[in-house]
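User: Fold this; C-alpha cells only.

Assistant: Input:
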Amino acid sequence: MASVTRKYQITIPKRVREDLGIKAGNDVVFLKTEDGYKIIRTDEIIEEGVRIFRDITETVKEIKAGLGKGLIE
C-alpha cells in the first residue's frame, strides 16, 4: 500500500520496484488499460518500439523477396 502526499506523490513499495526493475532516476509512464493502469519504465517502451520496427523491417524485406520471386517465376 502507498499513501499519496499533499503534492500527489507516492513512494513505490520496494517489492513493486524490484518486480518492475525500477531504480532511482528511472522515468516511468502510467499506461491506461481496460483493467486499470500499468506502470512501465520508459526504456522498456523504447526497447519495444525498436523490436516492433525491426520486425516490420524484416517483414517488408520478406514481402519484397516474395514479390520478386513471384515476378520471376
